[in-house]
Write a structure and sequence with these properties.
The structure holds 3 protein chains of 3 kinds. Chain A is of the alpha/beta class. Chain A is built from 11 helices and 13 strands. In chain A, strand 8 and strand 9 form a beta hairpin. Classes of the chains: A alpha/beta, B alpha/beta, C alpha/beta.
Amino acid sequence: MKEIVIISGKGGTGKTSITGCFAALAENAVLADCDVDAADLHMLLAPQVMETTDFISGHQAVIREDDCTACGICMEKCKFNAINLTEEGKCRVDPYSCEGCMVCVQVCPVNAIDFPDSLCGEWYFSHTRFGPMVHAKLGIGQENSGKLVSTVRREAAAKAKELEKDLVIVDGPPGIGCPVIASITGASLLVVVTEPTISGKHDMKRVLELAKHFSIPALVIVNKWDINPEMTQEIEKDTVAGGAHPVGRIPYDRSFTVAQINGRTLVEEKTGQAVENITTIWEKIWQTIK
Amino acid sequence: MKIAVPSPGRTLESSIDGRFGRAAGFIVYNTEDGSFTLADNGQNMNAGQGAGVQAAQNIAATGADVVIAPSFGPKAFQVLKAAGVKMVFSIVGTVKENIESFIAGKLKETDNANVEGHW
Amino acid sequence: MRIAVASGKGGTGKTTVAVALTLASQEPAVYADCDVEEPNGSIFLRPEVDRVEKVLVEVPEIDESKCNACGDCARFCQFNALVSFNTPPLVFSDLCHSCGGCELVCPTGAISWKKVPVGEISFGTSNGGRISVIQGKLDVGGSLAPPVIRQVKAQLTDDVFTVVDSPPGTSCPVIESLGEADYVLLVTEATPFGLHDLKLAVETVRELGTPFSVVINRFDEGDSGVEDYCASEKIHIMVRIPHRREMAEAYSRGGNLFDAIPEMLDVFRNIPVTIEKGVEV
């Protein structure tokens, strides 16, 4: 089983739209959306959710107001200023500020603080018109540590094995932090979608450093290349210098937006230069890993 | 001697997991009688950060003397070292093949963390 | 006045809007970059940096002569930052949240605190000194953005017009950067992805209770979903930025909004005035 992860560094480069096209072009693949903070792939693939599973991570302090004597020791000891006095003169934990350290539980003289598991989101197994899909939603204000990302990847790989699929296509998270690292380690191939802008170029270099660090082969697509052809050339030079390979360019095309509005991938929507390029790019990617 | 191997599967024919900290679980093989047990790593990992540290502690808790894995991050390395667990690099293949290769003295012991941990 | 600029989705033009809002100010202004994983406001504001400060956090230090190797600290730590096998604990400072719990449970008083860097804050000026640029940056490989964001926020005062560039998304660093803002501008684009992520961002800001409105970037490029949603939710649309290829080209070279669409300048000058007056919702 092979696993391709599509990442971008910078947001808004067209990563998810292009991933959607790959999902349409691939045969016999499981799809995984690891962009759990702002998951969008489902809008192109219209998954029908078959199973939903809670995602539990860490703990959260909860004060039982009936037992609280409002002595204020927890407020004093909390390093995150997460405990406030209510109008009724009781202590209450602000769930957005609580980091789940358990200090308040420890210091409370009347044991009035519970420390339940923290529900941080959920993940789903679904059917789409292009095959099975695993995706997730992180709760608002939660720490995106990479654990939910790892869960999605693990479950997608398990489904691939169970259903005898030979490929997993992963829509990775933006940035270069923990979630990205959790999405790429051990993958067969990285596909980096960038754009010819200063920040696109900068972020792509950082992403390639990560790829090199974890010894994962990487291919680079420059989307909207015609916005700045000189910058595109520079990016392709940087790609080679960074130990990766340019795999193609895609022109700026407003029909990506039209396809998105219609809830479809571009390759289902129309023909044209962008679609031709994406199709060629996909064939090259497939040749690289198969 | 007990040998721990990270794996997504539940039998000795299962493949080895490419990730150490985020492995679903560990297969712990006992060379005395050829039996093995499964140590869960997925559900116990209740902290978002520090997966490598937690996984290394989980291994130490199984009483394993050796762990075979493709890579060890710096934190896991330190923890396993402190716990006195020997770390050995795996080869591509099943859990069983790795254990057999280790017993035959064909696998290489680590003296350094070989990947940087980040998450 | 402090205005935080945020977006659910990356790449919608959040930094473009935050930079434009700062540049449009006719009074002295502060631009605070809280997108500490990828701070790139400086690409467009090009500040002259005159000072860099380290962001330090406190992590435990073990006095092994006092430690009795009981392991209580490691059992208490919720973040795996301490590990003990009946030995003095190993300390993994980059996992530490500085909560103080280990010191609290240590029976022998063997734990004290030392400071380690997790990022840095740079101070600079641009536009002839009219704009102060404060940028937070997380060290590569660092995982704790909130302390860096908190320290950027600690530099801010209420007496000067301040624009906070927040990280994208809805996770905990976003909440941290939006705290104490007087007003939030949510930047989105007129596409289904933009709408989907805007809804998450609206949910976040509503939880916080901060007044907010929406900026639609490339409003004429997509569909009416964002407009319809704002109308039904009674959310004010502060600005509609037209789609121009020149903007994409200017952006690619590090140019700002007004380089590409000069007529937006008056519109952006008006934003603080509109907020001050109170927006009809």
